[in-house]
Write a structure and sequence with these properties.
With 394 residues, the chain is α/β, with parallel strands linked by helices. The protein is built from 9 helices and 20 strands.
């Protein structure tokens, strides 16, 4: 049996950020990351859109993303280690939420609350939209909300960067599956592995994304996290667009951004997504390509008629890790000593991952978070009947 100061279950963006921050904050003992699929073929962060926005209505979410944005600006430099050249390439092109008669009242209320929470946001009139982003139809718009410090990054490169940074600091990545979190009485004792071995540790972190609930049950706790399929489509434009799209969110929920392709393609492409409220819970990851023509393309072309000839290149799906209030579970679980949770981000994990890594490092080392108070996001809040509301979910 091996021993470790900290065992983290889930070696994706969240787990790797936590490990990197623990090292950054002075933890020198063994940190073991358990990742059952080192190819990350099903990892949510490998299939994500990469949006980064501070446009939330709660002070805690705004604080987490504002801290993360500062980190994103220096991410590539900090994670370029050894032979790895980090290419997350955070692009602060903004988030543009469009308001028409269907959502203007709600977005007006959100705007007030976002400013009160500390987010930097601007209210723009349709004429300003036409001037700054020509080609967007504004005939039905009443106003837009723009976050000039928001943007997006390459999600696959974020994952690879955090992993490279953690490896360079001596974090061990074990290609194995955690089948049980072991405990003695009310305290964790380690993790049992699918290959038959075990790792003894008094600190275990569940950061397994959409699969966190299953591993939590092995420790005797219920984490209200369910997987939900999310579709994304890549479309090639008929000719280069005259500017680079910000993350543009239509009132229908369809949203898109430009892609700055690092795969060698010479075509101008965009990534298009839409969260479907009727998507059933489950681990299905096969994309339904018929959704492009039925649910995605019509609102896109209505808002940007010049995209009418855009050609579908591919579609794929990943998993959101959804909680009942669409906010994450963060911190130590009070029912089991030494057990920590960083999961259930409901689509906002990548954007917050630098701050969550810092917060979790503080909680593990100090017993509390110093960066910002995250007590309202505690893993047991639903058991206590205290869900947390943030009115700015997509």
């Amino acid at each position: 049996m091996r021993t470790a100061d900290v065992v983290i279950i889930g070696g994706g963006v969240m787990g790797s950020s936590i490990a990197w921050h623990l090292r950054e904050d002075g933890v020198t003992g063994p940190i073991v990351m358990i990742e059952r699929d080192p190819t990350y073929a099903r990892a949510s962060s490998d299939r994500a859109m990469g949006g980064i926005r501070q446009q939330f209505t709660s002070a805690v979410n705004v604080a987490l993303v504002r801290h993360s944005v500062r980190f994103w600006r220096v991410f590539d430099g900090r994670m370029s280690v050894g032979d790895h050249v980090a290419k997350a390439r955070f692009r602060p092109r903004g988030y543009l939420f469009l308001a028409n008669d269907t959502n203007a009242t709600a977005l007006e209320r959100r705007l007030v609350r976002m400013r009160e929470a500390g987010a930097r946001v601007e209210r723009l009139e349709p004429a300003e939209v036409t001037r700054r982003w020509p080609g967007l139809a504004t005939d039905d718009l009443r106003f837009v909300v723009f976050g000039p410090e928001d943007g997006y990054a390459n999600p696959r490169q974020v994952l690879r960067g955090f992993r490279a940074g953690a490896l360079a600091r001596g974090v061990e990545y074990a290609a194995d599956e955690a089948v049980e979190i072991t405990r003695e009485g009310a305290h964790v004792t380690g993790v049992r592995l699918a290959t038959g071995g075990s790792i003894a540790s008094s600190v275990v972190v569940i950061a397994a994304g959409a699969w966190s609930a299953a591993i939590g049950r092995t420790a005797g706790i219920e984490l209200p996290i369910v997987p939900q399929r999310q579709h994304l489509f890549r479309a090639a434009l008929p000719e280069p667009w005259p500017y680079r799209f910000p993350m543009t969110v239509d009132p229908t929920g369809v949203h898109w951004r430009h892609e700055d392709d690092d795969r060698g393609s010479t075509r101008d492409t965009i990534i298009v997504a839409r969260t479907r409220a009727d998507e059933p819970a489950g681990e299905a990851m096969e994309p339904d390509l018929d959704l492009w023509g039925r649910d995605f393309r019509p609102p896109l072309v209505r808002r940007a008629p010049g995209l009418d000839s855009a050609e579908l290149v591919e579609g794929w799906a990943g998993l959101y890790e959804v909680t009942p209030d669409h906010n994450p579970l963060i911190g130590a679980h009070p029912a089991v000593g030494g057990l920590h949770v960083a999961a259930g981000f409901s689509g906002h994990g990548l954007m917050m991952s630098p701050a969550i890594g810092q917060v979790m490092s503080e909680i593990i080392r100090l017993g509390h978070a110093r960066l910002t108070d995250v007590g309202m996001l505690a893993p047991d809040r639903f058991e206590r009947g205290e869900p947390f509301e943030d009115g700015a979910m997509i």
